[in-house]
């Protein structure tokens, strides 16, 4: 299974969309000072809402670091 599929699976396991998980990563990453998230259509708010309500844990952070190691 590829990294994208694993990412999708991780998102589904936490009942969020992949976009919601990606935005949650931005909100919770220590090197991201202020994520700028723009939406132009109402359905795009779902990912923003998911990111804000997401229960981030160090386990999720570690799993994403495994999937996408820093270059």
UniProtKB/TrEMBL annotation:
This is Aldo/keto reductase family protein. InterPro entries: NAD(P)_OxRdtase_dom_sf (IPR036812), NADP_OxRdtase_dom (IPR023210). Residues 4-67 form the NADP-dependent oxidoreductase domain. It holds the Pfam family Aldo_ket_red. It comes from the Bacteria. It comes from Actinacidiphila rubida.
